[in-house]
Amino acid sequence: MSLLNNLSYEEYQHALSFTKEKCEIIADLANLKITFSDTNQPGEKLMKYLYRRGYNAAQYKQFLATSHQVKTIVTYYKPQAKIAILIANSGYNNLSKLATPSVDCDSLAASLKNLGFIVLTLKNLLSSELKRVLVKLFDVIPEDSYCFIFYAGHGCELCNTKFLLCIDCPTENIEIIHCITENFILKGLEKCNIELCVLIMDMCRMNLDRCSNPKLFESLSNIEEYTIHNNLLVAYSTQSSQAAYEVLQIECSTTIDENVTYELKTGDTDKILPGSSQYVNSLCTRLGDDLDISSLLDKVHGDVENSIRQQKPIKIQCGVAKRSLYDPVKGNIKYY
Predict the structure, then answer these.
(1) Any stretches that span the bilayer, and where are they (predicted)?
(2) Which of these ranges, 49-58, 101-110, 283-292, has the smallest mean pLDDT?
């Protein structure tokens, strides 16, 4: 029997209200090669094609029921590539060792790989080594790509400049050679001409004393300047002058800024769960949500603010175009 003759008026009107994404799912289930970008009435076009191919009402209803079980991912853009660089510093030579950065980066790597990212994890590198590796990576990141950079480890701040402290950092008289600055990363990405940059720093942001670190203060005049085009989101897991927390019930010690942190002891490995830092715990959970990256980070920050150890993350955004970590690279499908 004819498809259109055996649908009620309400069922047909409902079909006419389908979104383009809904129509694409049903067309795919019916093995129809249709594009809906050329019409403002995708539902009407879908029904005409189903009718012409001889599908009946029962088959259409089966396609419709199956389509409800398909997770639709809104595609905002199709980048050339999706690259994630995850940096974990935990085995410090002089500062207190941290328990969770390596575990957190491993958990985050697994989640991002499921979203189609090429993931590179850098663990416990000296400052000179980390800078050299990052420079090489920035040289090969394709234009028009998404770049997701995450850092977990000790950090600090001086005159609003954020420093990622590498494993060879001393406890006093810190110099720029012991650190990676936020500016260094963003300056390196500037030449890549990427479509989206997400930089997340899960670290303490305690303010250092100028008098105790004169060489670091002197180096601020030579800090890199950068210009980011398109879409940039920078997130800090905590506010300025505040600590970022690991969630563990094991031996603890004191950091360079006199805040409590957690240190691995023999036999403690089993006590670490994936996503052990408050921030990464929420981030890995929220990566399953179908949200643009700005809205996703808002959700993550709301979760962190309500965590056991309250901390208030910060998000800085440049560019208003919506982009999602689910966005497929060019040539990939958009349903997962």
Answers:
(1) none
(2) 283-292
Q: Domain span at residue 9?
A: 4-67
What is the arithmetic mean of pLDDT over 85-114? 93
Same domain, 112 and 179: yes
**In this structure, are 8 and 103 located in the same domain?**
no
From the list 226, 238, 220, 114, the residue with the least C-alpha distance to 158 is: 220
Same domain, 108 and 147: yes
Same domain for 95 and 212, yes or no, is yes
Radius of gyration of the chain (CA): 25
Q: How many domains does the chain have?
A: 2
What's the N-to-C CA distance of the chain in angstroms? 34
Q: Tell whether 332 is covered by a domain.
A: no
Q: Is the pLDDT of residue 164 over 90?
A: yes
* Rounded Cα distance, 88 and 268, in Å: 18
- Residues 32 and 119 reside in one and the same domain: no
Please report the pLDDT score of residue 151 as a whole number. 96
What pLDDT does residue 328 have?
92
- What are the tens digits of pLDDT across the range 212-248? 788 888 888 888 888 877 799 999 988 665 555 454 4
The beta-carbon contacts of 70-73 under 8 Å, at least 24 apart in sequence, are 70/25, 70/335, 71/290, 71/335, 71/336, 72/21, 72/22, 72/25, 72/290, 72/335, 73/290, 73/324, 73/326, 73/334, 73/335, 73/336
Per-residue exposure over 144-180, b if at least 16 CB sit within 10 Å of its own CB, e if not = bbbbbbbbbbbbbbbeebbbbbbbbbeeeebebebbb
